[in-house]
Structures are given as C-alpha cells and as structure tokens.
Amino acid sequence: MYAISPADLGTEKTSVQRRRPARSAGAEGVTRRLTPGQHLFFESDRAAFVYKVQSGVLRLTRTQKDGRRQVIAFGFPGDVIGLPCEGRHTTECDAITPVEVLPRRCDISEPSGMDPQLRARLMEAALNEIRMLQDHFLIFGRRLASEKVAAFLVLLLDRIGEPVGELQLIRLPMNRADIADYLGLTPETVSRSITQLRAQNVIALDDANTMVVRDEYCLRCLAEGDAELCACA
Amino acid sequence: MYAISPADLGTEKTSVQRRRPARSAGAEGVTRRLTPGQHLFFESDRAAFVYKVQSGVLRLTRTQKDGRRQVIAFGFPGDVIGLPCEGRHTTECDAITPVEVLPRRCDISEPSGMDPQLRARLMEAALNEIRMLQDHFLIFGRRLASEKVAAFLVLLLDRIGEPVGELQLIRLPMNRADIADYLGLTPETVSRSITQLRAQNVIALDDANTMVVRDEYCLRCLAEGDAELCACA
DNA sequence: CGGGACATTGATCCGCTTCAAGACGCGTGG
DNA sequence: CCACGCGTCTTGAAGCGGATCAATGTCCCG
C-alpha cells in the first residue's frame, strides 16, 4: 500500500542526522528514524537487526491471503521488536507515528560470539513477548466487543497513560481500524463501543484520538466482564 | 464440574482435574510421566524447569476471573514447553493424554553458567513459540467458525497426521471443548463445523476423535477461506 | 474553500451463542 | 451379559451481537 517514501520529509529538527545510509537497513547503534507509514521490515525479510523502540509507535502485522490483516502487536518505547525466527522476521512492521529505533545486530545463529549481556536481554525480550502475546489472547478471546475495547484501553492506560490532575489521559496513536484488527472486530464496532463508554461517563473524548479516563475503576471492571461491579452500567 | 478422583489408575479415559502439590517437580534429565488431567505446572509457579515433550499431548491454558478459559497452545512431542517469564510460568499446564516429558533445569537469570548449546536451544524454542503464537492469532482471527476449525485440523494434520494408504488420519487427542477454547468458539459450534465438513465429504469420522481426511486440498482451501476453490462446497 | 481520510451513527442481516434435548460410547455393578 | 450412569458429542430452536452496507459528520491540510 505504501511506497517507499523519503524519510527526510518531516520532523527533522532534532539533529544533523542527514547522512543516513539510503535504503539500507541501518547500522548497529545508529538511531533510525521513520515517518508514519514507513516500513521497518517485512514478513520473511532476512533479519539483520532487532530494534529497540526509543520513541513513537510501530505496528506489527501479519496479512493473510484473503487480504485480512491481523495486528499482532504495537511497539511502544522500551519494546524490543523484530525478533526473528530461523533468521527471518515473522511479521510486517511499519510506523504509525514518527519513530526512532535503535538497531542492534542480531545473529541468533551465532550466539557464542555475542556479548553475554546482549544475549541475556534478547532472551528476556523473547520471553516477555511470549507473555504479551498470551495476554493479547485473553483480550482477543473476551466475549463482548465492549469488553475487548475496555481491556485494550486499560492496556494503553498502563502503557502510555499520562497523568492529568487526578485523572489519566490516553493519546491513541492508532486509528479505529488498527484497534479493530488488533481485537478482531470492525472499525464500526470499535467506534460504537467507545461511544458507549463515553455515554457511561467512563471516558471522555477531547478529539477522536485523545481520551480522558474519568472512571478508571469502572473501566477496569468492564475490561474484566464485571459490569455489575460498575455503577456506570 | 469435574470430580476429584485418583489419577493413578493408569487409565487414559476421562480428563480429570487433579490439583497436586508439586512436592516432586521432577529431576533434571529424568523422564517424568503424567496421567490425563494431571498438572505439570500452574500459572505463577516458580519455574525450575522447562520440559521437552517426549510423548503424549499437554494443554496450556490461562483462565480469567469470570471462569472462562483460553487454551493458549497444545504441547506435542518435540515441543519445549514451560518457558518462564521473570522466573515464573505464565500458563497452567496439564496432560490430556498420558505424557512423558523430560525436565531441563532452566535458570534463565543465570545464563552465564549455562551450557551454550542448551542456551541456544532455549532461545530457539522461545522464538519458535513466538511464531506459533502468531500463527495461532491468524487462525483465531478467521471470520467463520468453519474456517477456524478447518485451519485447526490442518494444523493437527501437519503435526500429528498419520498416513493411512493414500489418505491421512488424525487422532484428536483433545475434546470439542478444548478445541473451542483454542479457537474462541463454543463446543456446539465446533461440533457443527465438523459435521459440516463431514457432510461435504472433506473428512470422515470413525469415532468422534478419529477422523480421516478425505480431501486434503479442499480442507486446506477451506482453512484459508477459499471455499470457491473447493468443489466440496 | 474543497478534498480526502477518518469517525460516527443508523438499518438490516447473518452466524454464533445459548439453552435444551437426545444420542452415543464406555465403564461399572448387578 | 445386560442395565445403568456418566461424560461427551450431536442436533434443534430461538435470540442476540456484531458484520455489513450506507450515509452523514468531523478534522486536517493543501
């Protein structure tokens, strides 16, 4: 869908990082910047690096033959993404906001020569990813759409929530379609669920991608299917 | 739902949940045997070992507060299961057939003293698990129940299919409820989908847990949503 | 100001869940 | 050997929730 687009179009005020190797995958230890829509890697790509996300948000997806897309995960700052299997990436990855990632050379097949510390971190990252995928399954398997959406918002809240006075703010980096493909729903259903949460005064929307959590306890109850425990219902 | 009953009968009949204090978690390198329903570990257990499955089939599950169960994966011979996160198991695990596993001591936090070969295998196992979980997502995200079930049968076919003349045989080690909880369906819907596949002459059932794949090509088409490509529809 | 991408809302339809009943296989005990 | 009970699988009928299709609203950016 997206063609390779020049990376030096927008938001280039930070440093003089103009000598980025063109069209190369990057270099060890040199921060790589992506603009929204730009790909970091594709499925089946030979994996030269794993990437530590420094800022921004990435989207990890797999697509099936019928064109349907599954969002496997979102990559937030602090995440290590791009762990390969048998030397190849197992998902597609593109940026949904301006992104900075730090590439680390990653030759899993030659672990003997690898820095022990890096090796340990890689293992830790892999085990963490396993747990996050399992958590994702629990959300994905929720019965009602509203529960899925609430659980997703809780996830975001814990990950990128920003305190605003007594309450918390969530700046949604992804659009409704991304949320839908993460949860196994349609964008319309996601929108309806959000509208419903707003009607219950659990959240408030500034604009479509900026929400204030007005009743965090209630949101967490709804996320677990305990609608009864929540006075908002 | 399940009665507590002694599990040492040696019979492999009904699945019996038997909570057993893991006073003898096993010993490094000594094959451990489980009877159906017996647990290998529980969620949040401190993880002393990972296990290589030698024979039989295990079920890895996570349960949520409302009692709903999500089958995360099945452990087949050759699989390495029980990879911990932060020193603890992230799922529950019990046997659904008689099982033999080989425990390997696994102190991820102390990787320096670990045999490099074992370390490499652990990493490989972790990366493989990530890919398998991602594959699971694609199946879970299929639109129609019949596609999910077909995709699941293809998975089993490739994993434990037994050639029988020209065709292939699948001995289902798990019941309909397990399949349902793996796919995010109800047992009734799984049953109906199987009935439908049988009516289309794609499969034939000997008994409920023994099926012959009569048209493998068609099954694979249905699994990918290409019902049109299949004359059986 | 106008165009495009995205979000919301509405109406309808379909597939799955739910609840219920019956069938089947298997082990036990008479 | 057969009757019984239990767990599982199958099948049926009804209701509901989300998908789909369509129209409108909103924001952003040129």
TrEMBL record, chains A, B:
Gene3D superfamilies: Jelly Rolls, Winged helix-like DNA-binding domain superfamily/Winged helix DNA-binding domain
Location of region: Disordered: 1-30
Domain HTH crp-type: 143-217
Pfam family, one: HTH_Crp_2
InterPro entries reported in the protein's UniProt record: cNMP-bd_dom, cNMP-bd_dom_sf, HTH_CRP, RmlC-like_jellyroll, WH-like_DNA-bd_sf, WH_DNA-bd_sf
SUPFAM superfamilies registered for this protein in UniProt: cAMP-binding domain-like, Winged helix' DNA-binding domain
Keywords, ordered alphabetically: DNA-binding, Transcription, Transcription regulation
Name the record gives this protein: Helix-turn-helix domain-containing protein
Top-level taxonomy: Bacteria, Pseudomonadati, Pseudomonadota, Alphaproteobacteria, Rhodobacterales
